[in-house]
Amino acid sequence: MKEPKYLFNHLKKLEKFKNDNKTAIITDIDGTISKIVPTPMEATVSQDMKNTIKKLLDKYPLTGVVTGRSIENAFDMLKIKDLIYIGNHGLEYIKNGEIHIDSAVKKYIPLIKELAREIKTKLKDKDCILFQDKGLSFTVHYRLCNDAEEIRKIALDIISKLEESKQLKVAEGRKVIEIRPPIGHDKGTIIEKLILENDIKKIVYLGDDITDADAFFKLNKLNKKNEVKSVNIVVSSKETPDFVKENADFYVKSVAEIKKFFEWLTDN
Q: What is the model's pTM?
């Protein structure tokens, strides 16, 4: 397995991305600029982190977040006006102050809501499970369950037997199962769209989870084709799958180290 290198032992290799207002800085939220907590409602982005991101925007105008959360939820967490916001793993984004959603995605919303109702009914006896309606997708959180792996298997088995699930995409993340439309963007394709639309030549991407591997993989591919210079940074933990690490160039150990890296990016 290819192991990423510890970022702070190799900062010189990132000098070409620093102090360049054509460099894009794109980050995930949960587990990257916000600590992983028992429930999604408890997650916060510290004021220190927000202030550091604002400094990033001063030097790197194309700075943004790509998250599994809804656009509204992401904005409420950060409240940074000029930041690029991409929500629901790329299914929606803010452009010129307006939320844009792929029209092909919208027809699946009623189906997702119907499946969500059935999942809630089937799993209503599992008090440790939390359900999150994100508008364009639906998430089952089982982090609070003592027997998390067993609950995961039960939930996936129930979902697989529901007729609606055959028409939708079922994906997993850190102690979550997500129901999404079978079309539209993932973090990789939305990053590629961002690169093409903004003529990005350099990009730093930061993430920690399975869906971030889509972005890592896409950027590695574009890098090899010399279409963009990129660097992938993973916040590594015991929950980070090996294939996510394999597609990262460097790793850090915590959200605090992401903030430290951002400070290095803004340091003259």
A: 0.92
